[in-house]
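To: structure desk
From: M.T.
Subject: fold request, one chain
Message: Could you run this one when you get a chance? Sequence is below, nothing fancy, just the single chain.
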Amino acid sequence: MSKRKRDSDQDPGRVAELAAGPFPSDFDPASLQLSDPDPWLTLYLDQSIPIDDSARTALLRSMRRPSRARLLPFVRPIARTFIVLNTVLRILIPNRWHSSARLHRLIYWGLKHFVTPEANYLILRHFHIGSEILAFIADNVPGFKAETVPLHPNTLEDLIDDVFLQHDLNIFIFIAQMSAHLRRQGRDLAPRGKLNFRAITDADFPIETLPEGRWNLVDLQTAIEAYTPLYQLFLRNNDFWRASNSLQLDETIGIYVAKLLGSPFHLFFSNNRHPIIPLSTLRAGFRLMLHGLAAEQLHYHLRQWKRGEFDHLARTAPASDA
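Reply: Done. Structure tokens follow.
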């Protein structure tokens, strides 16, 4: 894949580019109309939800896209109908036809040619964030090392190497191996005297230029809804079930981090919960959006801890160096 920057490509730095003053030109508070306030501008200006500025800008730009208003209402019911049909197909011929390689090449092709640069930016960010959160937890469990594969894709082409599937495998492998490690030692996670934040990047990720061609018009949520039945079709039944139900593990990871920090504040970020009671796969696309937001919020919260913004909580938490 060419590393040269083309005129049709968008530098990810533009996702967070600021106009004159502290605001991007398309989220300028001066444009607020009192008789018809823009909800996306309002959500951009609101700071109650902790999230990286570049991620917030990219997400709200994606939400503003015409495709979300015009395509999503049609794509969503069609996609969910195909999920039902795929489920019937898998009951009749389970695991007789699947190809993760074809799936990932199809995802790469679709993202490259049809999905907006800010949506692709958020997708690539998500794998960096997921890997860093798991690495942070592992770094603060003495004697533990998970057999997971760190995922740090910087180009869309990097996704071809089974990145989506490996992302789901990583979370289950990590939880199983760490839980077994703690059980063997008769311990649980607990606040430590000094947490290791080396895994958490307090800067933007080195994501390369992203396509911004004539047809790169599809927003993040519409793309996710469209891809969900394809994900189900091309994977084994166990792989799709694991991918769908891994979303509810947001609560599990949140609890792990809460025990290490000695603070439950960030648990409010998680809307995917109760992993012991799996939810229907029909809403997997929407739950994936919530998963991405929760991961962004948790990662940013850890960045705040790394900077020392929550040192007052660290001093009051009971420490354990075990």
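Reply (cont.): The first helix runs from residue 39 to 45. Let me know if you need anything else for the meeting.
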